[in-house]
Write a structure and sequence with these properties.
Blueprint lengths: L42 E6 L14 H10 L4 E3 L5 E3 L19 E5 L14 H12 L14 E8 L2 E6 L6 H4 L12 H4 L20 E7 L3 E6 L12 E6 L3 H9 L14 H5 L4 E16 L9 H10 L2 H9 L4 E2 L22 H10 L3 E2 L5 E3 L2 E2 L1 E7 L3 H16 L3 E7 L1 H4 L16 E7 L7 H4 L17 H11 L4 H18 L2 E14 L2 E2 L17 E2 L1
Parallel strand pairs: 1-9, 15-16, 15-17
Antiparallel strand pairs: 2-3, 4-6, 5-6, 7-8, 8-9, 10-17, 10-18, 11-18, 12-13, 13-14, 19-20
């Protein structure tokens, strides 16, 4: 189900797959050498609603591709199942104590692992890191998020395996961002890409060369992507021989193919199918906390939604506990914040706005919206009608829309629905994306809050698309000041006080309506081993350890 993603946060997606373009299909047969439950030893087949928009990590705006990047690429660090950084291309996390961060906080030194190789055999070293930084900052590249990287003045290779990062100013989350998942970008191959003025339209988009545990061997658009074990991976050849990622049209098809063993797994399964997947005899369902939040964004540039009283009325008319129960079967949990329930920065005292239809009516009256003879509110002869947008095929969103329409009607508001393919919903502003170009009024989707609580790319005044992800087009000076201060210090208690301010402003000023904190459901075969989801980013952080009987 989940359509989410976050400050690495590129955008999550659940989408109906495109029509199949003719090509050989992945075998759906079972192996006589399997565990008797339809699995193929050494092969994992998983299903998703979304097909990637690109396999170039600099360009993609979908969460499903981030999951793929964990499989095919390398980062400096990966968050493990305890939310702790696991060194990958970097050997240790720089700190003030170990000298990796200078006393003024403006220089960081990363020591890189020797012996890593790209999947074509070329060495991975400091040159690739320097190139990746410049590619991210290259204005000719259609990069949508530069949070953290835009605070860097220069990246210097001191030798083949030592990188110095010089900051313009202190940016406290930089470890979580630089060449790490929250920043959105893995290390990219300079020997392949550095020759081009931009990377927007290269064959690399379909046939990338990475350095991770698996390598792309086939992308049949509209049907599947095949990845095979990388024998040059620095940890050694992974236990799985092959991973097949299939694009399927809807949740019912995914459940059916799990039951018939045409696919093996469903990562981030739709909670609306909780009962169905729990009944699968050859599978187990793993339920785990995750740093994802479901929310309804409000386009504050819209003439109706620019009025705070209208925004406050909307949150008052929504029965959020009912949404959690009816739309997610209580798999998700009610939340008043974008921060994960396990985040050190979460303010337990954040203001809570209760379901209160009478308050909603009063606020709308104060804003000049009065009921007409049909019960629908009007102002200057215009009906109070709002469009609710979400991704095609998202069952939870459709259930939310139905509840929202019913509750809105009770206070004199008309809610209409409009769905979009994920590729358009999350597309860049330059491509007319629904969110980033502001082509919406209300929009539901999920998002990741990252390992570090920094959410400045979502809410700061200088982060309107295409320079960030503030698709609310909302500027709040009080929040902006707190965000700036939180980014300027490594003092965790000071940062926590700042994030208490941002959470209060988000709740009371209502540019977005927080619905729930998500818990992920992963449906995997009993023959699948080594699967340990990380609450911070992705279940794929230790894919080299996965195996299939």
């Amino acid at each position: 189900m989940v359509d989410m993603m976050g400050a690495w946060r590129l955008l999550a997606a659940v989408v109906l797959a495109a029509g199949m373009i003719g090509c050989t299909k992945v075998s759906q047969s079972t192996s006589p050498g399997g565990a008797g439950n339809g699995t193929i030893p050494g092969v994992l087949r998983y299903g998703e609603l979304a097909e990637p928009d690109s396999l170039n990590a600099l360009l993609s705006t979908q969460a499903v591709t981030v999951d793929v990047f964990y499989l095919i690429d390398s980062y400096f660090f990966l968050p493990d199942n305890h939310d702790d950084p696991v060194p990958e291309a970097a050997l240790q996390v720089p700190t003030l104590k170990n000298g990796g961060i200078s006393a003024d906080g403006k220089t960081l030194v990363f020591h890189m692992r020797h012996g890593m190789k790209w999947q074509d055999g070329a060495p991975l070293n400091a040159r690739d890191v320097v190139f990746t930084f410049h590619a991210i900052m290259n204005p000719s590249n259609n990069v949508q998020v530069r949070t953290g990287y835009d605070q860097i003045s220069d990246v210097v290779a001191k030798d083949d395996y030592t990188i110095a990062v010089h900051m313009k100013t202190v940016f406290s989350p930089i470890i979580a961002y630089f060449m790490s998942p929250q920043g959105g970008y893995p290390i990219m191959p300079a020997h392949i890409l550095a020759r081009y003025p931009d990377v927007n339209h290269l064959p690399f988009t379909d046939t990338p060369v990475g350095s991770g545990p698996f390598k792309i061997t086939e992308w049949v658009h509209g049907d599947h992507i095949t990845m095979e074990a990388n024998p040059l991976y620095w940890r050694g050849t992974p236990k799985l021989k092959k991973i097949v990622y299939r694009f399927l049209p809807d949740n019912n098809t995914i459940v059916t193919q799990l039951r018939t063993h045409e696919i093996d797994a469903w990562f981030r399964a739709d909670p609306s199918k909780y009962g169905d997947v729990m009944s699968l005899p050859d599978h187990k369902v793993v339920k785990s906390p995750e740093n994802l939040f479901g929310h309804i964004d409000l386009n504050t540039q819209d003439p109706i939604l620019s009025d705070l009283r209208v925004r406050q009325a909307l949150v008052s008319m929504i029965d959020r506990p009912r949404i959690v129960h009816d739309a997610t079967h209580d798999v998700f949990m009610l939340s008043d914040s974008d921060l994960a329930i396990f985040s050190w920065a979460l303010d337990k005292g954040v203001p809570h706005l209760n379901y209160d239809p009478e308050r909603a009516k009063t606020l709308l009256e104060e804003a000049g919206w009065t009921p007409g003879p049909d019960g629908i509110r009007r102002k200057n002869g215009v009906k109070l009608a709002l469009q609710f947008s979400y991704i095609s095929g998202n069952v939870i969103a459709a259930k939310i829309a139905a509840i929202l329409q019913q509750e809105a009607k009770g206070v004199g508001v008309v809610i209409t629905q409009k769905t979009y393919p994920a590729a358009l919903f999350f597309a860049a502003r330059q491509a007319g994306g629904t969110l980033n170009a502001g082509n919406y009024q209300l929009a539901y989707f999920g998002w990741s809050s990252g390992v570090d609580p920094d959410d400045s790319a979502l809410y700061r005044c200088n982060q309107f698309p295409p320079n960030g992800q503030n698709n609310l087009f909302w500027c709040d000076p009080k929040l902006d000041a707190a965000e700036r201060d939180a980014l300027s210090t490594f003092d965790q208690e000071r940062r926590k006080r700042d994030y208490a301010v941002t959470q209060a402003e988000l709740t009371t000023q209502v540019p977005t309506i927080f619905l729930f904190a998500e818990r992920r459901l992963d449906v995997v075969p009993k023959a699948f081993h080594g699967f340990v989801p990380s609450p911070a980013e992705s279940a794929n952080w230790n894919a080299w350890q996965w195996s299939m009987d």
